[in-house]
Amino acid sequence: MEWSAKLSRADQPFGSWADDLAAAFVRLEPRKIADRPFEGSIARTDAASVQISLVKATGHCVLRLRPHIARSTDDLCFVNLQLEGLGRTTQRGHEQVCAPGDLAVADTTEPFEIANGRDFRLFCFAVPRRHLPKSFADSPRLALSRTENGRALSRTLAGYAELCLAAPAVAASSGTHVVELIAHAPEMLGEMPVARVNAPVLLSMMLDHIDRHSDDPGLDAELLARKFRCSERYVHRLFVATGRSVGEHVSDRRILICARDLLDAQHRHKTISTIAYEAGFSDISHFNRLFKRSHGLAPREFRRTKGKGE
């Protein structure tokens, strides 16, 4: 589902934005911050009980007022992941200032204000309050961008949001896991060992790290253990749940990237060895065996036949 609005008349500076916000989220009142023509858009998908939205807009603020709440049956928390711009969420006298990568929480059953002074982008996770810890929305401070573990969680959440919006068919199966990630965000900012973090959350962060760093030739279970401050044995235990080892996940990701590059006209000038090395492989014979096992063709044959659309 998508909505968009922009300045249409001088007496309607937000166009249909108030109605768009009500349709996508809950009733909110937009207010101007700067003298700039307004423009905004919302793309939303439902992931089980969670609604995931990408919001892009010029700077403004929105207020949740008591009259809105009196006429509403919504019982949600908005958990906003700032992507661009600087956001400020104020509720119960508590202020959360969010840089890119940070989370902010707003309880829709009480008044709040969310302000972005400049153009911004954010993911909004609308989560039923019953799915979150009771104290989750009490004076939250979720500046994930300040710690390595927090940044890893932020990237993982963004990855899930992007996947759900791009492929709504998989969104339904991802909602519960998104809630788990959000619910454990406060733990990621503490001093507790990462190995004590909820196992599915830690596994998601490791899988996200593999997706983003598969071109590192040294990426293996030992590196993940050092990165996430746990034992190598614990890493292997986590990956049992996926049905594949760390090495298999890494190799599969590299093979996927190599197959894409072999078919990409922009990489036509590169040798197969160069493509394999850039993807993270250090042994070409090993790469050739894995590629043929995955695609049924040697890399050279794959490039020659598939690259021609046969």
Automatic annotation (TrEMBL):
Listed Gene3D superfamilies: Homeodomain-like
SMART domains: HTH_ARAC
Keyword annotations from UniProtKB, A to Z: DNA-binding, Transcription, Transcription regulation
Name recorded for this polypeptide: HTH araC/xylS-type domain-containing protein
Protein's UniProt keywords contain DNA-binding: yes
InterPro entries, sorted: AraC-bd_2, Homeodomain-like_sf, HTH_AraC, Tscrpt_reg_AraC-type_HTH
PANTHER family given in the database record: ARAC-FAMILY TRANSCRIPTIONAL REGULATOR (PTHR43280), HTH-TYPE TRANSCRIPTIONAL REGULATOR EXSA (PTHR43280:SF2)
Keyword DNA-binding set for record: yes
Gene Ontology molecular function: any one: sequence-specific DNA binding
PROSITE patterns: HTH_ARAC_FAMILY_2
Ranges where the HTH araC/xylS-type domain occurs: 204-305
